[in-house]
Design a protein that fits this description.
With 156 residues, the protein is mostly helical. The chain has one domain. It is 88% helix and 0% strand. It contains five helices and no strands. Helix 2 packs parallel to helix 4 and helix 3 packs antiparallel against helix 4. The protein is elongated and about 65 Å long. The N terminus is likely disordered.
């Protein structure tokens, strides 16, 4: 049993160590694209859609955290994308909760105050998500440039 565990660890180390930069780039871009596609598919102001999007972004964050890259630059990109998706998850999750609050507010003075606070929370988080998206765009462009340099140096 111990030998099997050691063999498995060495095999995984060898796979990660010998995986080409091109295949590592493709693997990272595939994960990031899954998260981006989830945003494009589920964006909106409906509570259930926003809640589902937040859950999907948390899954992508966990995938990124668990992903390992032998290339140190790709590992840095991976960490930065994990932070971006974690931020999106939190921002969209908070906006979703605030949106749900507006749906259940009573038609009263206190209800109007609740709705006003919820709108402020929604706006704050959506503005933050907008800036996170800008950071995502810049980072994704840098990743593509890095990966294209790798492909050109290999002759692809």
């Amino acid at each position: 049993m111990l030998l099997t565990s050691i063999y498995l660890c060495l095999t995984l180390f060898w796979v990660y160590a010998n995986e080409s930069k091109i295949s590592q780039c493709k693997r990272l871009i595939t994960i990031v694209d899954q998260g981006n596609n989830s945003i494009e598919t589920n964006k909106g102001y409906q509570v259930t859609t926003s809640y589902q999007l937040a859950k999907d972004l948390e899954k992508i964050t966990q995938i990124l955290i668990k992903s390992k890259f032998g290339d140190t630059k790709l590992a840095e990109f991976n960490d930065k994308f994990a932070t971006i998706f974690r931020n999106w998850n939190q921002q969209i999750g908070k906006a979703s909760k605030a949106l749900a609050t507006t749906k259940t507010a009573e038609p009263s003075k206190n209800g109007r105050i609740t709705i006003k606070k919820a709108r402020e929370e929604i706006n704050t988080n959506l503005i933050s998500a907008y800036y996170t998206a800008k950071n995502f765009d810049v980072l994704f462009e840098e990743l593509n440039e890095y990966c294209n340099q790798t492909e050109e140096s290999v002759g692809f």
